[in-house]
């Protein structure tokens, strides 16, 4: 289960495990019934469905309680304009930005997104930015904050801040930079961050000028999400929903997949039973550079492909939906699967005509949203531990799993719905600091 506190004694561990188990079970029953307000739909009614991935804004008492207990400062506003990278990193950075904003009791300018290079996905920084709805549903984000944290003031842009003067800015701040040592598990005492922040703010040259506008640098995997308790953790991620264009295209991909292979599924299921296997093949150039195959066994194509094919076979599934930013590796994987009487398909195979044109008009990160959503609903899923993309999908799926000891092997994250391959405890920054 997701850790809800750092255990100190055996009794505490047992008690926390029992409490978390009960929370997870109650939560899973609720989420399975209401995460998407989709009634039971027969497969013959596919044509009437346009969006399988829509859900209501977060309306969370757990978040409201934290916001009620916060001392708010109307003369303080945060901006978060430099979040970039892959979808999971981007998502985590924006959620961390909101969490630090609540911690400080500040207002918030709607975050922006740094666009990656269209020719080199490793080229992210020092590039132009886009509005939040380039990836996420902006209206859903605003409504979630309005419902769950009404005290937090939101500004469309920096010029909207009352009495804002661009000549006075408190400066840039990397949130975890206020702490001398941050272990891989994240901030040891996140509750102390507010005091550290205000000490820093009072030392800035323009502190006496109101309002104080602070530009938060992107913070990816340093905030320990378990600090806030299980209900908060699960609700917080619901503030971000992918934009409607990606959701509709993912729905079309699934409809075409179900029809092409004559699957008999209940579309109201959050995760399909006895349908397709989802494989995230993380072998793109940026991954190979960050985790060189010579040093990281799970970066190797052969390691990943063998694991996924074995998992598909053991799951009794013959159709594999594969996701990767490297078309040549997908082609290779398809041939390897064919040798074992398995079939690989992709969004590019399944989308035709105007739908294919819409896909080709997307950036690589927008197109990855389609894969993310289709993989979410796969009957069984496989990914690699050093991929925050794969782990984020696995963690989301885990709330519907029965197995609760997912961090204890045999793989980095294991339950009956997903296998995220890698050594146990290999990436503590993901285990502790990734919002599901």
UniProtKB/TrEMBL annotation:
GO terms for biological process: fucose metabolic process. Gene3D superfamilies: 3.40.50.11350. It comes from the Eukaryota. GO terms for molecular function: transferase activity. This is Alternative oxidase.
């Amino acid at each position: 289960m997701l850790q809800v506190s750092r255990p100190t004694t055996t009794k505490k561990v047992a008690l926390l495990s029992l409490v978390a188990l009960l929370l997870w079970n109650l939560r899973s029953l609720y989420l399975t019934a209401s995460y998407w307000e989709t009634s039971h739909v027969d497969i013959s009614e596919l044509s009437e469905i346009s969006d399988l991935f829509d859900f209501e804004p977060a309306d969370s008492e757990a978040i409201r309680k934290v916001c009620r207990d916060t001392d708010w400062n109307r003369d303080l506003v945060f901006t978060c304009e430099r979040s970039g990278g892959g979808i999971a990193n981007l998502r985590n950075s924006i959620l961390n930005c909101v969490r630090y904003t609540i911690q400080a009791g500040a207002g918030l300018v709607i975050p922006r997104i740094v666009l990656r290079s269209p020719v080199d996905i490793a080229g992210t920084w020092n590039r132009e930015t886009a509005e939040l709805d380039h990836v996420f549903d902006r209206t859903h984000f605003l409504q979630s904050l309005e419902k769950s944290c009404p005290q937090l003031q939101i500004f469309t842009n920096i010029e909207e801040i009352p009495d804002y003067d661009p000549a006075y800015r408190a400066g840039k701040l990397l949130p975890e930079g206020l702490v001398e040592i941050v272990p891989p598990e994240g901030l040891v005492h996140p509750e102390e961050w507010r005091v550290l922040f205000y000490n820093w703010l009072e030392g800035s040259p323009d502190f006496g000028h109101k309002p104080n506008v602070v530009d938060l640098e992107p913070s990816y995997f340093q905030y320990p999400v378990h600090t806030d308790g299980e209900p908060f953790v699960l609700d917080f991620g619901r503030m971000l929903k992918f934009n409607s264009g990606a959701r509709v295209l993912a729905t079309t991909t699934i409809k075409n997949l179900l029809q092409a292979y004559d699957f008999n599924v209940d579309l109201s299921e959050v995760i399909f039973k006895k349908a397709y296997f989802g494989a995230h093949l993380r072998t793109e150039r940026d991954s190979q550079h960050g985790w060189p195959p010579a040093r990281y066994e799970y970066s190797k194509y052969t390691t990943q492909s063998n694991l996924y094919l074995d998992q598909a076979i053991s799951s009794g599934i013959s159709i594999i939906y594969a996701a990767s930013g490297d078309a040549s590796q997908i082609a290779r994987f398809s041939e390897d699967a064919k040798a074992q009487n398995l079939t690989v398909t992709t969004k590019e195979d399944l989308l035709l005509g105007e739908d294919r044109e819409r896909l080709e008009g997307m950036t690589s990160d927008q197109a990855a949203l389609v894969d993310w959503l289709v993989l979410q609903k796969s009957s069984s899923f496989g990914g690699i531990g050093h991929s925050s993309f794969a782990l984020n999908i696995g963690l989301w799926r885990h709330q519907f799993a029965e197995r609760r000891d997912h961090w204890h092997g045999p793989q980095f994250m294991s339950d009956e719905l997903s296998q995220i391959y890698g050594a146990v405890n290999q990436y503590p920054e993901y285990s502790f600091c990734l919002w599901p």
